[in-house]
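YM 10:42: RNA polymerase sigma-70 factor (ECF subfamily) sequence, as discussed on the call
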Amino acid sequence: MSTPPTGPTPGERFAHLWATCAPRVQAYAMRHVDPDTAQEVVSETFLVAWRRLEHVPGEPMPWLIVVARNTIANARRSERRVRALDVELARLAAVARPTTSGADDVALDRDTMLRGLAALSEEQREALLLVAWDGLSPGQAAAVLGVSTATFHVRLHRARRRLETLVDGPAQSADPSPASGAEDTAAEALGSPPPVPDVCGGPANPSATRRSS
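YM 10:58: structure's back
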């Protein structure tokens, strides 16, 4: 003969936790975020409580407040990232020169490229734009940034590869050579001509060199 279980079931315990603590958690959240976000915070807090019910102490409110506080912090970090991306896109769009073509695919290419540029790290984006947008040679760009030319080459190579991955996807970035396609596409999408200098310091137009020789 089995002994009947003693104490509340997990479902009963959670129901009691919700009934007694949810209003206080919501009041805490409402002091820090808007009502819609506060409701999401409460839902997420009690979802965590359900998943970790065995870890909820006998005095649950401090534990729940910590979970709610962390949830709010995560939400704010996400909001800051979204705002930062919007600001960066607006900044890049503000300096983008208008193109003569009004085709939809040109607008789409520009939007894709701007988003790719905005997703780069600040130093990668600066390296790429100094060459693609401002038309500087790697040596000149390195001097602007106060780094060695070798360091700038590495930074530019990584920026190109990262941008190609963001814009075209990993499958189209399999070529290990530091191709300047992303740089040229960035210049075209921004309305600027492709950069004159090559990343290795060679002539900008090899075919022209062959003809002259």
